[in-house]
Amino acid sequence: MIAGKNLFILSVLFLILVQVKLPAQNIDSLYNIANSNSKNIETIRALNKLAWYYFYRNPDSAMILNSEAISLSKELHSNFGLGLSYYFLGSYLTGQMKLDEALDYLSRSYELVKHANDIKIIGDIYTSIGMNYLYRSEFDSCIFYNKKAIEYTRLNNIRGLYSSNNNIAVAYMNQSYYNLATDYLLKALGYVEQLGDANSLYNIYINLASTFLEMGDTEEGLKYLNKMDVNNKDISNKRIFGFMFAIYAYAYTKQEKYEEAIVNQAKDPLGLNDVYVNLSTNFLALNNQDSTWYYIQKGLATIQNQDVPMTKAQLLINLGEYYQKQKQYEKAAECYKNAIEISTKANYLQARKEANQKLAEMYETTGQPDLAIIYYKKFQQNKDSLLNEEKQRQIAQLNIKFETEKKEKENQILSYENKMIQLEVVKRKKQNLIIGITSIILVLVLIIIILSINLKRKKEQHQSKIKQLKAKDEERNLLAKKLHDEIKNDLIGFSVKLKKINEPELSLEIEKTANQLRDLSHRLITHDFKKRSFEDQVKDLLADNINENLFIYHNNLTGINWKAVPDNTKRTLFLVIREAVYNIKKHSQANKATIDFGQKNNKISVTISDNGIGFDQNEVKYGQGLRNIETRVNTLNGKIKIFSQKKKGTKLFIQLMA
Fold first, then answer.
1. Under a CB-based contact definition with an 8 Å cutoff, are residues 164 and 184 in contact?
2. What is the fold of 534-657?
3. Does the pTM of the predicted model rise above 0.85?
4. Chain centroid to CA 149: how far?
5. Which one, 11, 104, 186, 392, has the greatest CB density within 10 A?
6. pLDDT band at 627 (very low <50, low <70, confident <90, very high)
7. Tally of CA atoms within 13 A in the half-sphere of 607 that contains its CB
8. Cα 262 to Cα 8, 246, 255, 449, distances in angstroms
9. Is 586 exposed, middle or buried (0-12, 13-18, 19+ CB in 10 A)?
10. CB atoms < 10 A from the CB of 534, how many?
């Protein structure tokens, strides 16, 4: 119940707070540049560096310096300077949890600096965008942008590499992918050891300790905690030690050493919210009801005016367990349900899973199997890789048990209804009853036959379309292979011969044609989603097509359970997205495109829009690309709508059955 993962999330806050560490003489030098009469890009750089320096030392001064940098950038018409200034502002607003406003400034920053030959700033912007998505709990997007940051950062920005790897590790940890989290944390540790920054080093120790504890390796977790020295004078943020003591308490709790856990948790006076959660948890384990009640009430009073849903959810779960031990089941249920509501809004899976589990167990204990199965199913949906196979089997067996009980009750009801019918038959004339029942049966049989015939016909038509589509895909694959393996190689060989006979221009044209054939063969190949997931292939497709002239966003890609979507549907969607992206790059002259994924009931929708030149739908006929898209969507009985106006971009809406 102790929020080890909670500690892991909070510790990442140090990343922004320790970004700039400058000697005093450098500060004086920056002030001299900022206050000089010469106003240029170096002045803007100096103002922004000073803003970063004061980021957590004096936020008001940081914002004043950044505002001056923005004003000077506009005065000098410096897009690069404005991009640097918006990057700081977006990062600052992310730290203030104003995430939408922050993401807007970071996106504008990228647009302003992307044409400059400064890969470091582009990498830093990607890192901040990834941090923004991390705070939104959109972990896949966080990982995507931090990996893009690593591509740009390279080896000349050690702090950027440390930050991006640590962010990716935090995202994986929050999805319970502890092995992946450990890999990235160890990479981050290698970079931070080169920095010589004690704050960042201790931050990694805390995250590694948390990860190993969640993996059940308490010894390895304590090894990293023991590396930390509370007397280290280089640690400017003493909150780090609060986390250290809290994780010590968590480690002792996992070993059921509750007294030691309480002692260590009490050493964390700055993290009162975590203190009250963890102390009340330990006193629950010790069955000390008075102390449990005291620390829960202290915790709820402390957070009354704070926006800390995770802490509140944990305290409510502890309070529910307290009431359950007191056999005040209605109050316990109310606490658990409030915890579920709060953790759902905050996207806090751990608390939601725990509260659903406790509700299910309580309802089972109190003889309410119908309610128990409802919450067991919710608990089963919430659980992820934190649950082992044995627990999954137990829950499956319990579901079977409840389903069996439910079926028995349904049989009892059916038996009772049959008896009532028999009594009614006695009261009525047998002949009329038999005729009525026979008529109903005949009508039902007739309806079933008609529905069965229609269903079979539709199924055959659908299968026929699928076979046609598969045949086309096979034909495309064969054509792609022939283009790539035979014709392309023949052209390359011919090009080499032309070079030998001193025909370089013709040879260059043939090489260009060979490359075009290679691209065409790649577009013709049908993708298989058994080896790599639909999400990964879409991300790769978008990453391959992002460049300095076009930035492609995606929304809610990971919000859909793609494993439950048929391969034919995924393959059609992928080909539609690929065709649309190629059309945007080739024809639209757009610099921004957005792909929104949605699911309602059993329908998947994809909306693809760009800010390009558009076209008049009344004047311009659709090209081959759009006709290909229409054909594929219609083959699966889907819906497609195209909206476009000159100079206002184009929007493509597709809807398919999931």
1. no
2. Heat Shock Protein 90 (3.30.565)
3. no
4. 17
5. 11
6. confident
7. 8
8. 20, 9, 13, 70
9. exposed
10. 20
